[in-house]
TrEMBL record:
Cellular compartment(s): Cytoplasm
CDD domains, per database record: TIM
Principal EC category: isomerase
Name of the encoding gene: tpiA
Pfam families: TIM (PF00121)
Pathway the protein takes part in: Carbohydrate biosynthesis; gluconeogenesis; Carbohydrate degradation; glycolysis; D-glyceraldehyde 3-phosphate from glycerone phosphate: step 1/1
Family: Belongs to the triosephosphate isomerase family.
GO terms (BP aspect): gluconeogenesis; glyceraldehyde-3-phosphate biosynthetic process; glycerol catabolic process; glycolytic process
Designated name of the protein: Triosephosphate isomerase
Task of the protein: Involved in the gluconeogenesis. Catalyzes stereospecifically the conversion of dihydroxyacetone phosphate (DHAP) to D-glyceraldehyde-3-phosphate (G3P).
Keyword Isomerase: yes
Length: 253
Protein backbone atom coordinates (compact mmCIF):
# COMPACT_ATOMS: atom_id res chain seq x y z
CA UNK A 1 0.00 0.00 0.00
CA UNK A 2 1.40 3.36 -1.02
CA UNK A 3 1.42 6.26 1.42
CA UNK A 4 -1.23 8.85 0.52
CA UNK A 5 0.21 12.33 0.97
CA UNK A 6 -1.17 15.85 0.75
CA UNK A 7 1.57 18.46 0.99
CA UNK A 8 1.01 22.20 1.28
CA UNK A 9 3.63 24.40 -0.35
CA UNK A 10 3.13 27.83 1.20
CA UNK A 11 5.81 29.39 -1.03
CA UNK A 12 6.89 32.89 0.14
CA UNK A 13 3.71 33.74 2.04
CA UNK A 14 2.60 34.57 5.60
CA UNK A 15 4.15 36.30 8.59
CA UNK A 16 5.08 34.43 11.76
CA UNK A 17 1.74 35.03 13.52
CA UNK A 18 -0.22 34.14 10.39
CA UNK A 19 1.84 30.97 9.93
CA UNK A 20 1.14 29.93 13.52
CA UNK A 21 -2.62 30.49 13.21
CA UNK A 22 -2.83 28.66 9.88
CA UNK A 23 -0.91 25.70 11.32
CA UNK A 24 -3.15 25.53 14.40
CA UNK A 25 -6.29 25.69 12.25
CA UNK A 26 -5.01 22.93 9.98
CA UNK A 27 -3.95 20.80 12.97
CA UNK A 28 -7.42 21.08 14.52
CA UNK A 29 -9.29 20.38 11.31
CA UNK A 30 -7.07 17.44 10.39
CA UNK A 31 -7.54 15.92 13.83
CA UNK A 32 -11.35 16.28 13.64
CA UNK A 33 -12.02 15.53 10.00
CA UNK A 34 -9.19 14.01 8.00
CA UNK A 35 -8.81 10.31 7.22
CA UNK A 36 -6.01 9.01 9.45
CA UNK A 37 -4.18 7.22 6.62
CA UNK A 38 -3.28 10.44 4.79
CA UNK A 39 0.10 11.94 5.66
CA UNK A 40 -0.12 15.74 5.75
CA UNK A 41 3.06 17.66 4.97
CA UNK A 42 3.25 21.40 5.59
CA UNK A 43 6.05 23.37 3.91
CA UNK A 44 6.07 26.86 5.41
CA UNK A 45 8.88 29.33 4.65
CA UNK A 46 11.93 28.02 6.54
CA UNK A 47 12.07 30.81 9.19
CA UNK A 48 8.72 29.54 10.50
CA UNK A 49 9.36 25.80 10.65
CA UNK A 50 10.54 25.76 14.25
CA UNK A 51 7.75 28.01 15.47
CA UNK A 52 4.99 25.92 13.90
CA UNK A 53 6.48 22.50 14.61
CA UNK A 54 5.29 22.52 18.21
CA UNK A 55 1.73 23.30 17.05
CA UNK A 56 1.26 20.00 15.25
CA UNK A 57 0.20 16.94 17.26
CA UNK A 58 2.98 14.57 18.25
CA UNK A 59 1.43 11.46 16.75
CA UNK A 60 2.99 12.33 13.40
CA UNK A 61 0.13 12.59 10.90
CA UNK A 62 1.25 16.16 10.17
CA UNK A 63 4.92 16.74 9.47
CA UNK A 64 6.98 19.72 8.33
CA UNK A 65 9.02 20.27 5.18
CA UNK A 66 11.45 22.82 3.82
CA UNK A 67 10.78 24.28 0.36
CA UNK A 68 14.40 23.96 -0.76
CA UNK A 69 17.85 23.38 0.65
CA UNK A 70 21.45 24.00 -0.37
CA UNK A 71 23.68 21.15 -1.51
CA UNK A 72 26.35 21.79 1.16
CA UNK A 73 25.93 21.22 4.89
CA UNK A 74 27.37 24.63 5.79
CA UNK A 75 29.67 27.34 4.49
CA UNK A 76 29.91 30.78 2.93
CA UNK A 77 26.58 30.75 1.07
CA UNK A 78 24.86 33.93 2.23
CA UNK A 79 21.10 33.62 2.41
CA UNK A 80 20.92 29.87 1.91
CA UNK A 81 19.39 27.19 4.14
CA UNK A 82 21.01 23.77 4.55
CA UNK A 83 19.55 20.31 5.06
CA UNK A 84 21.03 19.96 8.60
CA UNK A 85 19.39 23.30 9.47
CA UNK A 86 15.99 22.12 8.23
CA UNK A 87 16.41 18.87 10.12
CA UNK A 88 17.33 20.72 13.33
CA UNK A 89 14.19 22.87 12.99
CA UNK A 90 12.03 19.74 12.95
CA UNK A 91 11.52 19.20 9.21
CA UNK A 92 11.22 15.62 7.97
CA UNK A 93 10.89 16.40 4.26
CA UNK A 94 12.26 18.90 1.78
CA UNK A 95 10.75 19.91 -1.56
CA UNK A 96 13.40 19.95 -4.28
CA UNK A 97 13.31 21.03 -7.92
CA UNK A 98 10.07 23.02 -7.82
CA UNK A 99 9.60 24.69 -11.21
CA UNK A 100 9.80 28.11 -9.54
CA UNK A 101 13.27 27.20 -8.24
CA UNK A 102 14.28 25.91 -11.66
CA UNK A 103 12.91 29.03 -13.39
CA UNK A 104 13.77 31.91 -11.02
CA UNK A 105 16.91 30.47 -9.41
CA UNK A 106 18.24 28.58 -12.45
CA UNK A 107 18.38 25.23 -10.67
CA UNK A 108 19.67 22.54 -12.99
CA UNK A 109 19.23 18.78 -13.00
CA UNK A 110 22.91 18.47 -12.02
CA UNK A 111 22.50 20.78 -9.03
CA UNK A 112 19.46 18.76 -7.99
CA UNK A 113 21.60 15.61 -7.89
CA UNK A 114 23.75 17.27 -5.23
CA UNK A 115 20.80 18.69 -3.31
CA UNK A 116 19.04 15.32 -3.30
CA UNK A 117 22.17 13.51 -2.11
CA UNK A 118 22.70 16.04 0.65
CA UNK A 119 19.07 15.96 1.81
CA UNK A 120 19.07 12.15 1.97
CA UNK A 121 22.42 12.12 3.75
CA UNK A 122 20.84 14.38 6.38
CA UNK A 123 17.89 12.06 6.81
CA UNK A 124 15.32 14.23 5.05
CA UNK A 125 12.80 12.66 2.69
CA UNK A 126 12.66 14.43 -0.66
CA UNK A 127 9.55 15.58 -2.50
CA UNK A 128 11.10 15.82 -5.94
CA UNK A 129 9.24 18.01 -8.45
CA UNK A 130 9.16 17.45 -12.17
CA UNK A 131 6.94 18.77 -14.95
CA UNK A 132 6.89 20.19 -18.43
CA UNK A 133 6.35 23.72 -19.77
CA UNK A 134 3.45 24.50 -22.11
CA UNK A 135 5.43 24.28 -25.37
CA UNK A 136 6.54 20.75 -24.50
CA UNK A 137 2.97 19.70 -23.78
CA UNK A 138 1.85 21.28 -27.06
CA UNK A 139 4.56 19.34 -28.92
CA UNK A 140 3.37 16.18 -27.13
CA UNK A 141 6.89 15.38 -25.88
CA UNK A 142 6.03 15.66 -22.17
CA UNK A 143 6.80 11.99 -21.39
CA UNK A 144 10.36 12.26 -22.72
CA UNK A 145 10.86 15.61 -20.95
CA UNK A 146 9.69 14.47 -17.52
CA UNK A 147 11.37 11.06 -17.57
CA UNK A 148 14.64 12.77 -18.53
CA UNK A 149 14.34 15.11 -15.53
CA UNK A 150 13.98 12.06 -13.28
CA UNK A 151 16.80 10.13 -14.95
CA UNK A 152 19.16 13.10 -14.74
CA UNK A 153 18.57 13.91 -11.09
CA UNK A 154 17.52 10.67 -9.39
CA UNK A 155 18.70 7.63 -11.29
CA UNK A 156 22.13 7.61 -9.63
CA UNK A 157 20.44 6.64 -6.33
CA UNK A 158 20.27 3.10 -5.00
CA UNK A 159 16.86 1.42 -4.72
CA UNK A 160 17.20 1.70 -0.93
CA UNK A 161 17.77 5.47 -1.17
CA UNK A 162 14.92 5.87 -3.65
CA UNK A 163 12.48 4.65 -0.99
CA UNK A 164 12.91 8.10 0.60
CA UNK A 165 11.78 9.91 -2.55
CA UNK A 166 8.27 11.17 -3.24
CA UNK A 167 7.63 12.43 -6.77
CA UNK A 168 5.49 15.49 -7.42
CA UNK A 169 4.37 15.90 -11.03
CA UNK A 170 3.59 19.56 -11.61
CA UNK A 171 2.93 20.60 -15.20
CA UNK A 172 4.31 24.15 -15.31
CA UNK A 173 1.39 25.37 -17.41
CA UNK A 174 -0.91 24.45 -14.50
CA UNK A 175 1.02 26.21 -11.70
CA UNK A 176 -0.62 29.37 -10.43
CA UNK A 177 -2.56 29.68 -13.70
CA UNK A 178 -5.87 28.22 -12.55
CA UNK A 179 -5.48 25.59 -15.31
CA UNK A 180 -5.38 22.00 -14.08
CA UNK A 181 -4.31 18.93 -15.96
CA UNK A 182 -7.35 16.75 -16.58
CA UNK A 183 -7.47 13.71 -14.35
CA UNK A 184 -6.68 11.59 -17.44
CA UNK A 185 -3.61 13.72 -18.29
CA UNK A 186 -2.43 13.41 -14.68
CA UNK A 187 -3.02 9.64 -14.63
CA UNK A 188 -1.22 9.13 -17.96
CA UNK A 189 1.87 10.98 -16.73
CA UNK A 190 1.85 9.35 -13.30
CA UNK A 191 1.69 5.92 -14.96
CA UNK A 192 4.58 6.88 -17.24
CA UNK A 193 6.59 8.02 -14.21
CA UNK A 194 5.85 4.81 -12.32
CA UNK A 195 6.90 2.67 -15.29
CA UNK A 196 10.07 4.72 -15.59
CA UNK A 197 10.88 4.13 -11.91
CA UNK A 198 10.16 0.43 -12.42
CA UNK A 199 12.61 0.29 -15.35
CA UNK A 200 15.43 1.42 -13.06
CA UNK A 201 14.55 0.40 -9.51
CA UNK A 202 12.18 -2.53 -10.06
CA UNK A 203 8.48 -3.05 -9.54
CA UNK A 204 8.48 -3.19 -5.76
CA UNK A 205 10.06 0.26 -5.43
CA UNK A 206 7.86 1.66 -8.22
CA UNK A 207 4.71 0.31 -6.60
CA UNK A 208 5.67 1.86 -3.27
CA UNK A 209 6.62 5.32 -4.56
CA UNK A 210 4.02 7.99 -3.84
CA UNK A 211 3.46 10.22 -6.87
CA UNK A 212 1.67 13.48 -6.12
CA UNK A 213 -0.06 15.79 -8.56
CA UNK A 214 0.52 19.54 -8.27
CA UNK A 215 -0.76 22.49 -10.23
CA UNK A 216 -3.94 24.32 -9.28
CA UNK A 217 -5.24 21.37 -7.26
CA UNK A 218 -8.33 22.61 -5.37
CA UNK A 219 -11.18 21.16 -3.30
CA UNK A 220 -13.38 20.95 -6.40
CA UNK A 221 -10.96 18.92 -8.54
CA UNK A 222 -9.02 16.95 -5.90
CA UNK A 223 -11.51 14.07 -5.65
CA UNK A 224 -11.39 13.35 -9.36
CA UNK A 225 -7.58 13.61 -9.46
CA UNK A 226 -7.05 11.47 -6.35
CA UNK A 227 -9.39 8.77 -7.68
CA UNK A 228 -6.88 7.95 -10.45
CA UNK A 229 -4.96 4.73 -9.74
CA UNK A 230 -1.48 6.28 -9.96
CA UNK A 231 -2.25 9.59 -8.23
CA UNK A 232 -1.31 9.21 -4.56
CA UNK A 233 -2.06 12.73 -3.41
CA UNK A 234 -1.20 16.32 -4.14
CA UNK A 235 1.36 19.07 -3.74
CA UNK A 236 -0.89 22.03 -3.13
CA UNK A 237 0.02 25.68 -3.76
CA UNK A 238 -2.52 28.50 -3.24
CA UNK A 239 -5.22 26.29 -1.70
CA UNK A 240 -2.83 25.23 1.09
CA UNK A 241 -2.94 28.79 2.44
CA UNK A 242 -6.58 28.37 3.48
CA UNK A 243 -7.21 25.83 6.23
CA UNK A 244 -10.73 24.99 4.99
CA UNK A 245 -9.64 24.38 1.39
CA UNK A 246 -6.52 22.45 2.41
CA UNK A 247 -8.50 20.19 4.76
CA UNK A 248 -11.18 19.62 2.12
CA UNK A 249 -8.44 18.51 -0.28
CA UNK A 250 -7.08 16.11 2.37
CA UNK A 251 -10.60 14.73 2.74
CA UNK A 252 -10.89 14.12 -1.01
CA UNK A 253 -9.48 10.58 -0.95
C1 LIG B 1 0.86 25.04 -7.24
O1 LIG B 1 -0.10 24.28 -7.20
O2 LIG B 1 0.74 26.20 -7.60
C2 LIG B 1 2.18 24.60 -6.84
O3 LIG B 1 3.16 25.10 -7.34
C3 LIG B 1 2.34 23.57 -5.78
O4 LIG B 1 3.67 23.38 -5.46
Amino acid sequence: MRQKIVAGNWKMNKTLVEAQSLTSEIANMVEDEAPSDVKVVIAPPSPFIYAVENLVPEMGQIVLAGQNCHQEDSGAFTGEVSAPMLKSLGAQYVILGHSERRQHFSETDEELVKKTDNALKNDLKVIFCCGEPLEIREANTQNEYVTKQLTNSLFHLSAEQFKNIVIAYEPIWAIGTGKTASSQQAQDMHKTIREHIDSKFGQEVADETSILYGGSCKPDNAKELFSQPDVDGGLIGGASLKSRDFTDIIKSF
